[in-house]
From TrEMBL:
Protein name (Swiss-Prot/TrEMBL): t-SNARE coiled-coil homology domain-containing protein
Biased composition (Polar residues): 1-11
Entry-linked PROSITE patterns: T_SNARE
One GO location term (cellular component): endoplasmic reticulum membrane
Keywords assigned by UniProt, alphabetized: Coiled coil, Endoplasmic reticulum, Golgi apparatus, Membrane, Protein transport, Transmembrane, Transmembrane helix, Transport
Membrane-topology annotation of the record: Single-pass type IV membrane protein
Amino acid sequence: MASTSNRTSGGSMNGYASPYRSREGLSTRPVASSDEIQLRIDPMHADLDDEITSLRSHVKQLRNVAQEIGSEAKFQKDFLDQLQMTMIKAQAGVKNNIRRLNRSIVKNGSNHIIHVVLFALFCFFVVYTWSKLSRK
């Protein structure tokens, strides 16, 4: 999982090349658990303050990213809750309109089939007349 000793020869890596590499003075060792990383500090190198500063900046970046993720998740949750309420209201409106339409059909009778047939005959007559007039 992690290399036992990653020693660079002077280049500044700032932790972007690999999550388990660091500058001279810190190196990682493999651990039994995959969620843990153990650091071995080499006291021979004096740039520990730079490493600590670099780690602090990385922790701040991660904290900012975590806060952004949290605020985005809250926004998405609020948006979905609002969308769900809108859908519930729309379903209630459709249900009421269908109920009203059914009551109207029962009250006035169901002669809408006759209207549909008459409309179809009228359309057929118009198309027939138009086809006869266009041939002349």
